[in-house]
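The passage that follows is intended for readers who have already worked through the single-chain material. We present the inputs for a multi-component assembly, then the predicted structure in tokenized form, and finally a short commentary. You are encouraged to pause after the input and sketch how you expect the pieces to fit together before reading on.
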Amino acid sequence: MTFAVEVVVALKPVVNDPQGLVVRDGLHRLGFSGVRAVRVGKHLELEIEGDDETSVRALVEAMCEQLLRNTVIEDSRIGSIRVLSDTPL
Amino acid sequence: MTFAVEVVVALKPVVNDPQGLVVRDGLHRLGFSGVRAVRVGKHLELEIEGDDETSVRALVEAMCEQLLRNTVIEDSRIGSIRVLSDTPL
Amino acid sequence: MTSVQLAGASDQDLAEVALTRAEYVHLVESLGREPNRLELGIVGALWSEHCSYKTSKPLLGTLPTKGPRVLQGPGENAGAVDIGDGLACVFKIESHNHPSAIEPYQGAATGVGGILRDIFTMGARPLALLDSLRFGPLDELHQRHLFDGVVAGIGGYGNCIGVPTVGGELYFDESYRTNCLVNAMCVGIVEQGRLTRATASGPGNLVLLVGADTGRDGIHGASFASVVLDAGSAARRPAVQVGNPFLEKCLMEACLELAGDPRVIAMQDLGAAGLCGSTAELAHRGGCGIEVDVSRASRRETGMTPYEVMLSESQERMLIVAKPSDVPSLQEVFERWDLHSDVVAVILAEERFVVRDGADHVCDLPLDVLVDGAPLRGAPGSRPHRAAPLDATNRRRRSWTSEEALLRLLGSPNLGSRAPVYRRYDQQVGDATVILPGGDAALVRVEGTSRGLGLATDGNSRYAALDARQGAMIAVCEAARNVVATGAKPAAVTNCLNFANPEHAVVWWDLHDAIEGIGDACRALDIPVVSGNVSLYNDTGGTGIDPTVVIGMVGVIDDVKGRCTAGFRDVGDSVALIGPVDSELGGSEYQRIADGVNAGPPPHLDIDLERRVHGFILEAIAAGLLHSAHDCAEGGIAIAIAESCLLGDIGARVTIDELEQGEGLINGEAGILFGESQSRFVISFAREALVRLHELAARHSVPFRGLGSVGGERFSVTGCIDVSLADVRRVHEGALIERE
Amino acid sequence: MRFGIAVFPGTWSDRDCRHAVELAGHETVMLWHKDRDLQDADCVILPGGFAYGDYLRAGAVARFAPLMESVTEFANAGGLVWGICNGFQILCEAHLLPGALTRNGSLQYRCAPTWLRVETVDTAFTSGCAAGDVLEIPVSHGEGRYVADEATLEMLERDQRVAFRYVRRDGSGVVEESPNGSMRDIAGIVNEARNVLGMMPHPERACEPLLGSSDGMRLFDSVAKSISGSGAMPVGAAW
Ligand SMILES: Nc1ncnc2c1ncn2[C@@H]1O[C@H](COP(=O)(O)OP(=O)(O)O)[C@@H](O)[C@H]1O
Ligand SMILES: [Mg+2]
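Having made your guess, compare it with the prediction:
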């Protein structure tokens, strides 16, 4: 089966996020004064072959540790996992 | 009240995504051969003052159109909206 | 003092702040009391090797730092020399090895950010950056990861802030497998009248903290860089700093606007040990004291302790000392650049270092104890006996033809084209880069004058591994040679000393010898040392790096139009070798790839001949006699000629028969073609110039030997090499490219 | 003749552009992003750099600077606006030019000489060139891959709004040697009224033989000629 898996990779809370600061200030300049803080991270959408959700989740967790996140400054979490098709693409 | 709002910004499907290809090939090299495709987008986490979810959602939608996405090549969608605190930070 | 006193610090306490028991005892004696926790942490940071130079200071004192051009020697954020037209050239090199080993991109990026601040803190507009990088073997996945990350990080910061990276150097060697080296050099220009110092004065004057908010970045960074990386390094990872080149660009423009402004009494960047290190240095240089109120510093995070605020190494921050009456108008300048600033400290009359958290006094230390009080460290043991250098002859593992050897060398990571690196760097912003990377030194013109600066970094550690003193001397000479090849006369140097754990006698004595070597070479060539940096404890898991002396050289050419480049130019030009002929292979790249060893004495160096050769080349270029000049470095004559062909995109036909007539050429053809004898240049010139060049060579008494001529699309050495330039180029350009 | 040069926080080609314009013998005035006054500039240059760090997207935040309001009015009134590198990115973000500039195909920053074939001389910026001329002008960017939908690309081609294309030194197609993977090797385009040019390469870096090329000067000269020719003051006069 083919699964669509969402992964969010974000800077650890203690880590400085220059992008977030600029976006926040940009939004303030546009008049969105209620914006307190912005953090900018990555959103990955993966299409993977697998047998079931559990095994796919395990696979993606391994991918996060090995490649998708920079373990030094980033955390990652798996979002939705959806079945795309029952037959390989 | 303060809300935490997730926004996902991703390249439109028609726009090709070299970063996604590199990540996919990287995963293949690591032996994750079941990976069919990868798309890399942005994940923003905003902290916003607002009265209720509806008004906050409307605000963030406006932010997406004006700044957070490039309407020519990117789509955006609002993810979870959580209440952080009932009093301003 | 409301803060807790320590009833004697535990070993655990001391380990946390990287102080030895002996240092702690010395501290208590000098204070006449126990420090409290905050004081202990502050002392730990400022007494770290990184900030206190407790090991290297006694040795650095022997370096020649004076000269007619010197406006500012070691002791300030950077050195400065007079380059004429009332201008000063401000420059320094600095290491960011440990952070880059933990996170290559951010480590390298913040290294660039740090050295840039050292330059514009002095009021100088950064004109150019150079780097000096060392990694383990490139065919290993992790090394490739470090290499890519570091190169991306240097470009990421320099490109964004708009300062060109015009040169540098790069080596791969087993010795760096667990300790990569990332050194960055910055060169700036300022009108001498606007040269700004980091020397506080005037009790009652206020200190502005400008730029980034303070967060929990790099807490312990200073002591971190002063201890050996170990398994626990991973645990200290939250210390990793993320740079913000955009913020630094704004900070730089604002500071440059204020350079030489009478309202600015002193400017000091925040580097090692953050607010703590910078405020202490600032006051100590001025012979006054300082009182910091941590509650006034804007935070990026909530709940930070005074300790965290004082030691935070958040990037892109600057201190400005000014009269209270001038503060508001200065803050306006920063606001124009959307920069936030807080008054965080006041200058005191007595030399005390006081920290308050609002009304609460949390630290009160004598400044001299804090800044100068660290017990200096001498030799950890007597000079270890070094086995006489291995004889490098007759250990040939491979028997390649000279042609095979040429192509293998050109295609090796240490000799291959650097284009895959420097094309990721903006080399041109500023409209000043007259000679781009790829040849010898870069040449950058000085706006508003006809002058140019020749810039190079060099430091072959294979030689230093065999003989630290000789290696250091050669590093100075090679850097000078690269600058001379452009027609610029060496003016001054900066240096970065990268060594392993100096608590081992071998390492300490190598450091000692290397500094001697730098001093001797600089005295002989009459080039003062005006700045530098020391990085010790590059010693993960007991495997230390080879002694790595990186020399940053700045030379001056009065008219850039008279410059010379390294590529052959015209068909029919003659090619000649300036300098000695030998066949020594000790420490050579040929030996590395052919024999798989680093053995024998390093190349012989006749420093007086070196000096004469520089004289000859500079005069020949000034007289317009040369069409190209390229120094012979790694890979020897053969590689030098091949490079001149590639750079000029034209072939050459040479013969070495004349060279082979020499005495005792033990390594024969290979030694002559690929040996790395010093003090040599390959030059090309129009036939008509031959006579005058002969006279000139005789006058400077430097050896001059005809080699052949320029032309065609092949590189050939009679009887041993005949390859098409296209093949040479393909191999050379592929050397750093990842093979799938 | 007066060139206005925009300065955003993070702009770094401003000084190079001033240098080039002054070399060409014209007046320059720096235009601060917080101001609205274009100070009677005959041509406004949006120079290269990383305005606001180019965080989020190159040019995304700069587009909202007060100065850009005046620049937009000026452009709509027919004033000459020249976006170079970051300036091109800003013009696309501001919808003064179609399409977008995305991360280089190589995912790497690229600073290198490139060769541009002049595709149209029917603009104030290229009128001094001949169609097919090949100019040597360096690039220096990480996000220069021009993308647009088919319809837009077709329109650009049909209306001859592609100003420059990356080619080999000899004028032939670059194919895999493209510095950034732009669609149809597009290096620069103009708006429908042909008074707004966006280009990724840096002509201001190619105005002196000493720096390797002076082909960029031909563009500055073209602008100067067409302005003095049309005595374009009226447009500026509106301000
Ligand atoms: N190897 C060296 N040779 C000469 N001067 C040095 C050397 N190492 C450090 N210095 C000088 O000591 C001072 C402190 O160095 P450093 O701590 O690296 O400066 P910073 O605090 O700006 O990072 C500087 O003036 C520097 O030039
Ligand atoms: Mg400093």
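Commentary: The longest strand of chain C covers residues 125-135. The CA atoms of residues 211 and 251 of chain C lie 6 Å apart. How closely did your sketch match?
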